[in-house]
Amino acid sequence: MVGLQGYAITGIAAVLILWALHFARGFFVPLVAGVVVALALAPLVRRLERIMRRWLASALVVLALVGLMGFTAYSLSDEASEAVAGLPAATRTLRQTLRGVVNRSEGALSQLQRAATELQKTASDSTERPTTPSGVTPVQVVEPPLDLSNLVWFGSQGVLGILGSVILICFLVYFLLASGELFKSKLVKLSGDRLSQRKITVQVIEQIGDRVAQSMLHLMFAGILVGLCTWGILAWFDVRYAGLWGLSAGVLNAVPYLGPAVVAAGLFLATLLQFGDVYQAGMISLVSLVVTTIEGSLLTPIVFGKSVALNPVAVFVSFMFWGWLWGIPGMLLALPLLTIISTIAQSVEDLAPLAELLSD
């Protein structure tokens, strides 16, 4: 009975923790993102600390990161504005293009449509429609029209929320980097009084920093490589908004399987809209998948080897879990979080079964 009660309490606590993480994702997502980015940038700050004060090195690194993001946003701002301005016309053209594709292969579809119409007539004839009693006014429910002003308002609020989160993350990264060994020493003190416990804590913290930095470097290198290759190929095919597509391919490359599939599907629709040719659109979307496959199967293992030896099934389940919990930001943070969990499990004897489950 005691064991069942313990399992029940543990299950309830896990459910409450998951609910809290989901309900307060506006707080936890920037917090986790700031910690991950700070861990990734810590080796660079330590190198700069040899020639300057740590707070100055932290400020330079954060300002360089902000400058890189600002330069990327400024470089693609014209394409983004043009893409947003062309959305209405693009939607109409896409509708016409898809209608033409359907009309060219409507043999089976037209037969199914006629069969559905006949079934609908049969059902209408066999069903007795209720008559409205005399003296009662029939009521018709009219759906309210779409309020575009509210849509634009909520969209602008979403953009402002993202900008606010980015600013908070940048400040958090700076304070974490500038604090240096402060939090590390506090964690070591809280780990226990025995020297062995403190050594294990120091070892775990150092391994987490090194492995997260290596995995983030891997993701950044892979994203830049995929983004540049995608941009170059799309520019060679004269695809509109090649820069935006390259940026999307580079960012979503951090989400294995799903990210490249989303980019390929979007490219198929965009190139079908632009060229009106199904075969050309399929070829361009297939090329984007080939770029991602080559990067993941050949180039990255040659350059980095196995930077993070994780089970592919565990990686995929991690993306599913964090994506369910936090959405797209959770998918982008899934691999660093899994790296941290795996590192802790490998350094703690009681978590050895979890380490074996996650290892490759």
Structure description:
This protein is mostly helical and 360 residues long. The chain has a domain at 8-101 and 162-180. The chain is built from 15 helices and no strands. The protein has helices spanning 2-23, 25-48, 54-75, 77-85, 87-104, 107-126, 148-179, 182-190, 195-236, 242-252, 258-275, 278-304, 312-326, 328-347, 352-358. The chain is globular, with a radius of gyration of 27 Å. Mean pLDDT is 75; it is low at 146-157.
Search tags:
about 350 residues, globular
Mind sketching the topology for me?
Blueprint: H1 2-23, H2 25-48, H3 54-75, H4 77-85, H5 87-104, H6 107-126, H7 148-179, H8 182-190, H9 195-236, H10 242-252, H11 258-275, H12 278-304, H13 312-326, H14 328-347, H15 352-358
Helix pairs in contact: 2-3, 2-7, 2-9, 2-14, 3-7, 5-11, 8-9, 9-10, 9-12, 9-14, 10-11, 11-12, 13-14, 14-15
